[in-house]
């Protein structure tokens, strides 16, 4: 379930509840686009509220994913909201949406349903959804203790693209649903010690030739990041 709330300097107040929202995710991040609200609980009230907000130049809000107690799990900002059309209990809006990547809400809903209980759940995601999984892990990972001088092992046969590598690395370093970068620059940030690990002493990369072929120049860039932080990389 989703809820809609207008932007506020205080705690968000849900204006209406929505069964589902279509088109909410996009790889571009910030994009002007239409969204469909499916099964809005009070269509006339929401339309009226948006029209009044537009007159007052305060037509910005949040689309909130809710848990079973209707508490906010995560939210997506939408600005310059306009109602395009409404039919029965569905509404189509136009606005500037600060989207999460495809796959993000899928992962959040799986978390809500306690379905992320083991490693490699991300393998059930499509290639275009893996960045969504990685952003989900960034937003939800809990760090109970900071590890130091750890040794890890990854297998190049277990992932098929660069995003899959970061999904694997995150879980090898920080456990189920763990995060340790979603790109080269993010890996640099993680290696500085703010993401659950103060230092990595050794990385064993099995079937690395397959990864090298897949990643091309990115493979050497990854190795350089580890070299910069004195990680011994064993290529097998």
UniProtKB/TrEMBL annotation:
<dbReference type="InterPro" id="IPR000468">
    <property type="entry name" value="Barstar"/>
</dbReference>
<dbReference type="Pfam" id="PF01337">
    <property type="entry name" value="Barstar"/>
</dbReference>
<dbReference type="InterPro" id="IPR035905">
    <property type="entry name" value="Barstar-like_sf"/>
</dbReference>
<protein>
    <submittedName>
        <fullName>Barstar family protein</fullName>
    </submittedName>
</protein>
<feature type="domain" description="Barstar (barnase inhibitor)">
    <location>
        <begin position="152"/>
        <end position="230"/>
    </location>
</feature>
<comment type="similarity">
    <text>Belongs to the barstar family.</text>
</comment>
